[in-house]
Amino acid sequence: MKIAIVGSGYVGLVTGTCLAEVGFQIICVDVNEKKIETLKRGECPIFEPGLEAMLKANIQKGRLSFTTSLPEVINDVDVIFSAVGTPPDEDGSADLSYVLEVAHTVGRHINKHIVFATKSTVPVGTAQKVKAAVQEELDKRGVNVEFDIASNPEFLKEGDAISDFMKPDRIVVGVESERARAIMEKIYKPFVLNGHPIIFTDISSAEMIKYTANAMLATRISFMNDIANLCEAVGANVNMVRKGIGADSRIGGKFLYAGIGYGGSCFPKDVKALIHTGLENGCSLDILRAVEDINERQKSLLFKKFDNYFKGDIKGKTVAMLGLAFKPNTDDMREAPSLVLIEKLQAAGCHVKAYDPVAMEECQRRIGDAITYCTNVEETFRDADALFLVTEWAEFRVLDFDQVSALMRHPVIFDGRNIYNAEEVTKHHIDYFPIGYNA
């Protein structure tokens, strides 16, 4: 079976590479000529552990190829996965222009049956718009070509995407016909040998599942961050609270860690899009509005703690920032708390020094040389007045606290991810401020 993946960003590239890994013939399509040339050389344009090695291996085996022309390959493939971007519009809705352009292109050129499967995260009703766009172009041509549509949302975690695709918890596929179901079942059969299911639904439900999953996870994060702030106020410890409620089988322990808010390409965009879909359909989704508000406030929390600690006298202070990416094992800085903190620190007249194992180039692309980029952890906190732990990279988990105490101008750590032991930190004469409890 031959498959085309349209869009060679994060989702498209992981999807195409993993499908090639199990033996399918994959053609990745993207309009960005520079990106396609990079991929043809076996160079991965995104940071994702394990992806580049798998990419090179499948290119060498002849199972993975790249092109800028979808029309040239449409009639050589059985399935087209649309994995193009759906960025948020100003009103929070998902921009479907790229998805629909792919659909129109398919309609202009198909001469045989295909399954058009939407992989991008899209609002409920998008598949029907895709179907209408394809049919519109067929009608203009005066031809009758059968095609099927499907919704196949992705559930990939940045930093662990290969494992998520190769060993999924579940695969969700929305279809309208038995023919489409059989084809999608054949594609995913190699990935469900672990016993986890392919869940077949109607198309609208499949579209809704993706948004609902991300909204639920975002809700758990914001809920625990709200509880963490209350824990500090009343003298409780959010880590103990998390363990206590996480042991309840009805709740479970995942996504209950307090911190400085979520970021990335999925949760912020999808929560906004779901709120907008609700408004369009007369549902206010008040819980999700609160989730979004809490998350935005939480991104400023380290700055507030820092400002309170120095009683407002922070102008001219130097802040060391460990971590820039929104989470470990990625260089993604979309909606990252670090950007909010940098903006607030600079507005207050502070100097920022930062180190991140992989995201500094991306940060420099976004904000230029507005901050000082350091080459290691020690250089970052040397002569700093405060240290912000922003991203919980593995190499930040064990600091030499004697060195921190000796090299910082004012030894104080504001831990945005609760990765340090308060007793261990404070015995080295370092002031320590975690999230959700008083050290």
Molecular shape:
elongated
| CATH topology group of the largest domain | Rossmann fold
Biggest β-sheet description: 8 strands, mixed
Which ranges are low-confidence, i.e. pLDDT below 50, for 5 or more consecutive residues? none
* Biggest sheet: strand arrangement: 3-2-1-4-5-6-7-8
Strand residues, percent = 5-15%
Structure write-up:
The protein has helices spanning 10-21, 33-40, 51-60, 97-109, 126-141, 161-166, 178-188, 203-234, 238-246, 267-280, 286-298, 301-309, 337-347, 360-367, 377-381, 401-407, 422-426; strands at residues 2-6, 25-29, 64-67, 79-82, 114-118, 147-151, 171-175, 198-201, 318-322, 351-355, 372-373, 386-389, 412-415, 431-433. It is of the alpha/beta class. The protein folds into three domains: 2-201, Rossmann fold, CATH 3.40.50; 211-297, N-(1-d-carboxylethyl)-l-norvaline Dehydrogenase, domain 2 (Orthogonal Bundle); 299-433, NAD(P)-binding Rossmann-like Domain (Rossmann fold), CATH 3.40.50. The strands form two sheets. Strands 3-2-1-4-5-6-7-8 form an eight-stranded mixed β-sheet, sandwiched between helices. A six-stranded parallel β-sheet has the order 11-10-9-12-13-14. Helix 1 crosses helix 3 (51-60), helix 8 crosses helix 11 and helix 10 (267-280) packs antiparallel against helix 11.
